[in-house]
Amino acid sequence: MYSSDKPFIPPQVRETPTRFRNAFGKYRVHRTDACNASGQCISACKLGVNKKAGSRVVSPNDYRCLGPECPMACFDTCPQKAIVIRKDPNFDTLGDYRWTPDLLLSTYYMAETGKIPDSGLEYRTGGTGGGFDKLRIVFPKTSKKIIPGEVDTSIRLNRLDDGRPEVEIPIPVYGGGMSFGSVSISAMLGRMRAAAAWGTFACTGEGGYPDEIKPYDDHVITQIATGLFGVREETIQRVRIVEFKYAQGAKPGLGGHLLGDKVTPAVARMREAVVGSSLFSPFPFHSVYSVEDHKKHIDWIKTTNRRALVSVKVSTPTDVDMVAVGSYYAGAHIVHLDGSYGGTGAAPDIAKKNIAMPIEYAVPIVHRFLVAEGIRDKVTLIASGGVRTPHDLIKIIALGADGVVTGTADMVAMECLRCHNCESGRGCARGIATTDTELVNLMEIEWAAQRIINLFTAWRTEIQRILAKMGLSSVRELVGRTEFLAHDDYQTAPLDADVE
Amino acid sequence: MPVKYSIHPHEALPRFKPIIRSGIIAWEEGCLKCAVCVKKRCVYKVYDQRQLDGRQMLDSIDVLCKDCYRCVQGCPARLINKALSPSYSQIGDDLFTPEVIVKTWAQATTGKIPVSGAGYGGVFSGNGFDSMWTDMSEIVRPTRDGIHGREYISTGVDLGRKELYLSISRDGSCKLPSHPTVKLELPVLFKTPSFGAVKKPFFAGIAAAAKKLLTQAIIPAAMIDKTFNPYLAHVIPSLNAKTRLNPALLKKVSLVELSDHKDVMKQMAAVKKAAPKSAVIIRVALNRKSAARCLQLARAGAGILHLEGLDSGREKEPKNGRYLKDVITEVHFALVTASVRDTVRLIFSGGMAMAEHVAKSIICGADAVAADLALLVGVECMLCRGCEKGLSCPVSLEDVESGWTTQRIINLMCAWHNQLLEISGAMGIRDIRRIRGERGRAMFFEDLERQTFAALGNKIAGK
User: Fold this and answer.
1) Helix axes A390-398, A445-470, angle to 10 degrees
2) Which of A349, A176, A179 is nearest to A263 (CA)?
3) Is B449 part of the contact surface with chain A (CB cutoff 8 Å)?
4) So what's the pLDDT on residue A227?
5) In chain A, which residue's Cα lies nearest the Cα of B446?
6) N or C: which end of chain A has fewer CB within 10 A?
């Protein structure tokens, strides 16, 4: 278990390429018949795109190719001029406005290598034309010399000083709730293992606590949601953090949604439900109609588990500030705001698009309110709902959060490509969000865990680089520092400042 | 407890193959003829369902492919690729985007609300209704057993003038107002689209759907013949200043619509005389003058006003027309400020493309809305507007049958109704009328931007 007394040793990166035969790339390398296998392209390319295969030269790794602008220019080096570089025809068909093809591919790259891509992909922002995608990180002139590797990225989760354990996580990130049933046991275990390796947490979601994740108890957040699926006293007593899910950003005001096809015998057993019947969690908690009722719930958890911290996950309505402050006074350690553009295994499209506000607005509203109330330093404010990149993380912390919760980024690390078909039939055809006995075999736990470990290695490196450039020695110094931000529509950065 | 309003959908299959965003292109040249071809292993059995020999099939631009890319990533010779469908990006316009059209088709086919996995993939915000988010309620909830449970959320609305107080005459007798009121179970009326190759069976189909759905269809009076007889109680004849009154027809309907003109109140009096039990709607153009005109009409005794905007979802102004979101708000609050808002009912039309537009219109101040182009899209129109140029309709709208139209519209409205329930349920209300003009139950892009981003640290003069 991580504690600040002994230095945290980050997990090792191991190259973890795609599970599939052909990786996605931006370019493809073709050879004409003129190729005489001179092998010059092999030595020209430092990215290992080209390889000898018997008497021929092939390009099995052309997904790493930088394209016609590449300075290493194997196509020019080739004595026969036999190399033709074309854009991969599939590239433009991938992704959407939030997760552009560039963002998907750069996340795949981080998950494979543990490094930030240097291939010209736009890995910082997506294409939604608002919020994070219009915010820029501003670096005012600073004389402080900070070594990126020494920047502290840890955050505290318990600030109440209530005699419960101090819990610190070495990266300002933990994994959001994904239930057994909505995702496979391999995906769940992959996330848990990665969380353990990083000394942080991952949440079970509302589908119960499968026995397989018991070895990771110290890194599991168990969720109590309105359906109360698989919630037992014993599961609450196992963990260090218990999360109350009032609402979810993707479907605020609506309960969970597990369509019948995905309720397999194993899922039904775990949730104490009937095989094949759709499971709609009610909304809201039928025992909570006021902040007083809410306090009763928190007291119940605190009594059941004397060492647990309590997190309250809420969505972002007009009165999100009041909700946050109410949660604090009811005794929550963590207030977790889930913005409206967050992920889900299944939700009505009308809810995903229209109900509740994006996280970029909610965090500053709550942060300012907690500051005015004089309780900001007593609450850990966690943001989620569309945090896709280390840059989104920096931006939301500068807007007032302490840390973030990820969901979709983990899924993309496991090679989700956002086809939006997690909910129906046999579930995810790529073996992530499914419980189908055949499809789950598409993914190995080891592979999934390593991909997520690699992703957060890349994130942490980037976070440290940005903070050092800002002149900050700890991520904790960034909270609410909006002077490090500028919005394309309203501000330009000072002339002497650097902008990313 | 009153009978719960519910809509029963039945599948109504499309006549044409729907268009999708991207399809598969597979090349045969270079095929290694693997013993087990990736096409045979498709999770969704796309290749098998087309009943083609996988090895010979070249393209599959159809609805079966679900974008899992397993074949693309699995083919050893990389011969299978996805490609964007050129026809997809060409359909529709700014409001009825290709995505909206395709989802409307699906709703009209099945009656199911669009549900999908993964988070929202669209743009951050947009114009008009896309620049507002509706509220949700963290802990308050109207029903204890889900929005489809035994208790229910009402989407009904009453149309008719309402007096604010009783008038007592000198002799102490009380004069009870006798304004007819018509109850709709759905805050969505139907109206005839401004274009379309559709013929009478389509309009009869819409009238029949209005009857089934307990709402009303606005149809030009001249079009109403005996075909419409079975549905007359749910048909609103639309008249202009010159239309000769047909008392026999007016007595059979519950509502009559008159287009606005300077003597419209006189025409309204004539209609009331001919058909005292019918309520009258006045159709007013939605523009910069409509707030003032509505105020005038409300004070003069009008009961229901239909404000008609453009198909683009804007007011009727030659340039810089505002979006309905803002104009509805203006008209609503003009009447609120003058203390006459409760005397009238406001129906807005123009660009009602999705269920969310109904809820958002009501939050801005509408009582109900009227859908037009959405109905056309419901029967597979692609909004190419070729018919306006005299071109033949690519989806043969002139041939649609009225029974099929009725079922498609019922399905579409079933999906819209359920989406209204989702939005109302999330807000914790049990009656759609409760959110009329409740702008506090929504969040607006311009307000949030001002509070959040415009107030950031790095201010530069002039910006």
Assistant:
1) 50
2) A179
3) yes
4) 82
5) A361
6) N
Most B CBs within 10 Å, among A141, A340, A490, A498, to test the B interface: A490
Question: Which DSSP state fits A121?
Answer: -
Whether cis (ω within 30° of 0) applies to the bond prior to A89 is no
- Which residue, among B456, B459, B463, would best test binding to A if mutated, counting the most A CBs under 10 Å from its CB? B456
A 100-139: CB under 8 A from B: 127-131, 133-135, 138
Residue B154 binned pLDDT confidence (cut-offs 50, 70, 90):
very high
Rounded to an integer, what distance in angstroms lies between the CA atom of residue A155 and that of residue A152?
A: 9
pLDDT digits (tens, 9 = 90+) for B76-125: 999 999 988 888 989 999 999 999 999 999 999 999 999 999 999 999 99
Q: Whose CA is closest to B304, among B335, B263, B275, B262?
A: B335
Q: Would you say residue B459 has pLDDT above 70? A: no
- Say whether pLDDT at B145 is over 60: no
3-state helix, strand, coil in chain B (%, to 5): 35, 15, 50
Q: What is the CATH number of domain A148-487?
A: 3.20.20.70
pLDDT band for B290, please (50, 70, 90 cuts).
Answer: very high
Residue ranges per domain, chain A? Answer: 27-87, 148-487
Phi/psi of residue B348, each to 5°? -115, 145
Residue with tokens 């509805």: B328
Q: What pLDDT is recorded for position B393?
A: 96
* B176 and chain A in contact, CB less than 8 A: no
Name the pLDDT band for B431 (thresholds 50, 70, 90). Answer: very high
* Chain B residue nearest residue A421, CA to CA: B117
pLDDT at position B174: 86
The answer to whether residue A313 neighbours chain B at the CB level (below 8 Å) is no
How far apart (Å, rounded) are the C-alpha atoms in residues A463 and A475?
Answer: 8
pLDDT at B142 over 90: no
Please tell me the distance from the alpha carbon of residue A134 to that of residue A101, in angstroms, as a whole number: 18
Task: Report whether pLDDT(B49) > 80.
Answer: no
Pairwise CA distance, residues A494 & B58, whole Å: 56
Helices of type H across B172-308: 200-213, 247-252, 264-274, 290-300
Is the domain covering A27-87 a CATH 3.30.70.20 domain? yes
Distance spanning both ends of chain A, measured CA to CA: 36
State the Cα–Cα distance between residues A287 and B424, nearest whole angstrom.
21
The beta-carbon neighbor of A491 closest among B114, B443, B456 is B456
Residue B29 forms contact with A (CB below 8 Å):
no
Residue B148: is its pLDDT beyond 90? no
Instruction: Determine contact: A377 vs chain B, CB below 8 A.
Output: no
Three-point CA angle A305, A311, A313, nearest 5°: 140
The CA distance from A308 to B448, in Å, is 36
Residues of A in contact with B428 (CB under 8 A): 253
Query: Largest Cα–Cα distance in chain A?
Result: 78
* CA of A232 vs chain B CAs: smallest distance (Å): 23
Across chain A, which has 500 residues, the per-10-residue mean pLDDT values are: 69 96 94 92 92 90 92 92 93 96 97 92 96 94 91 96 95 95 93 97 92 95 88 93 91 78 86 84 78 92 96 95 94 97 91 95 97 97 97 98 97 96 85 90 96 98 97 97 92 79
| Band (B147; pLDDT cuts 50, 70, 90) | low
State whether B138 and A489 contact (CB < 8 Å).
Answer: no
Contacts of A453 (CB under 8 A, 6+ apart): A11, A12, A13, A114, A194, A197, A198
* CA proximity to B84, closest of B101, B67, B106: B67
User: What pLDDT, on a 0 to 100 scale, did the predictor assign at position A264?
Assistant: 86
